[in-house]
Amino acid sequence: MWELDETKNIPVYQQIMEQVIEYIQTGQLNPGDRLPSERKLAASYQVNRSTVVHALEELVSLGWIIRQQGSGTLVNEGRWGRSATPRMNWRQLLSRETPRTEPYLAELHGLLKDPEALDLYTGELPLDLIPDFRLPSYTWEELLVEEKKQKALGYPPLQKVICERLAREQELRVGTNEVLITSGAQQALFLLLQVMLEAGDSVAIEDPSFLYSLPIFDTAGVRLYGVPMDEEGMRIDALEQLILAKKVKLIIVNPTFQNPTGNTMTLIRREELIALSQKYQLPIVEDDVFSELNFEQLPPSLKALERHQVIHLGSLSKVFGSSIKIGWIIADQNLIQRLAEAKQMMDFSLSVFPQVVAYTALTDQNFSANRQQLIATLKQKRDCFYKYAETVRDDWEFEPIAGGLYVWLRWRHQKLTRKDWSHFLQEKLLVAPSFLFSNDTMAMRVNYTRMTEEECRAFFAKLKKLSGIIGGSKHE
């Protein structure tokens, strides 16, 4: 039973880890079973005892086994998501230096109010595209009545309509006891980090990813590790290597119209990701804030494919703008209850008013028609983008736009530097270079929804000019 495959070209300790995991998954080892002693394992594998100790320590960190003095090494009987005491080291947090502002962003933010600047950086729809709805006329007394309806998990009418929409549009059927209302998707992420992770834990994310720019990970003391992507999504082979090398505890993905690339993970890749997460018993957090803005049929959400392994995050901010700060977490009931308790302990209370506004928006009789009109308008903007993009095809490449807010333009030529991107600010073109999302400098995120046809034409005229500048002698 305890033998190595000499044909495998991976470190011995990783082979031992994989074998133990396989035995647990196939039922040869059951929860509570005791593994042989380190000495016996070392003799069976014909390796140094230190190699066995290394493998077992890695398996402990991943949660597969536990080591108890006097009892030996046992297969873990627990599951992720059960421990839920919020953790925040305030002394450590307050002693940290304030992060240095990214110079590019500092200059960009200074240009946002310049009427001559073209803002393709902001991650929202322009105001004239946000679907309209009529707010109900509530007296203060009526709002107090609605406030009394609120439960620990949120405003029940809003929870109910979210469940109905998920069942109708994503074939994802959940109960209201599996839905926690939050003040936006970032608060949802912060709660998950505090409840599910310890300071120093590692999280796997896509590379590139907007998550690099969020301060909540640094606040929680969590380490982010990027996993490269291909045209189908996060690379599973690279993710598995990272899981073994960095003791990853959580996987966070944005599989539909990913920010910043705009790409959508294929169904096959979603299934492979779920299979890998099950192999290592790692939860997946699915950030699904863009799926409302789809031009064509989407693959099933990760949550629809695997109910218990996936935690689903949603938000209204991409459709209604950041002024409606409403998001939600969908997970198994026990984890939702723990998150709700943590939310109360951290005093992350949420007024009933924005929840009533969100409920009103989602149940407005014109919402469906307004949303279809929005999609039609976004398709027109996409087609306009395609039309003028032909003028820079020799210098920039991009994938077809199937929905969402973003298009990822990649430079075809020599390596760019951060200094090259300063030319965009000089031309008052406000875009998001790839170094904001990874260590790469060769691409940029553009919010194509924020351009009229005239602005689109002006954008590509300036982009052609800038291509000549950053391309140097190639364009002479």
Automatic annotation (TrEMBL):
It comes from the Bacteria. One of its GO terms (molecular function) is transaminase activity. InterPro entries: Aminotransferase_I/II_large, HTH_trans_reg/aminotransferase, PyrdxlP-dep_Trfase, PyrdxlP-dep_Trfase_major, PyrdxlP-dep_Trfase_small, Tscrpt_reg_HTH_GntR, WH-like_DNA-bd_sf, WH_DNA-bd_sf. SMART domains: HTH_GNTR (SM00345). Keywords: Aminotransferase, DNA-binding, Pyridoxal phosphate, Transcription, Transcription regulation, Transferase. CDD domains: AAT_like, WHTH_GntR. Residues 10-78 form the HTH gntR-type domain. The keyword Heme does not apply. SUPFAM superfamilies: PLP-dependent transferases (SSF53383), Winged helix' DNA-binding domain (SSF46785). It holds the Pfam family Aminotran_1_2. PANTHER family: HTH-TYPE TRANSCRIPTIONAL REGULATORY PROTEIN GABR, TRANSCRIPTIONAL REGULATORY PROTEIN. In the C-terminal section; belongs to the class-I pyridoxal-phosphate-dependent aminotransferase family. This is PLP-dependent aminotransferase family protein. It comes from Candidatus Enterococcus moelleringii.
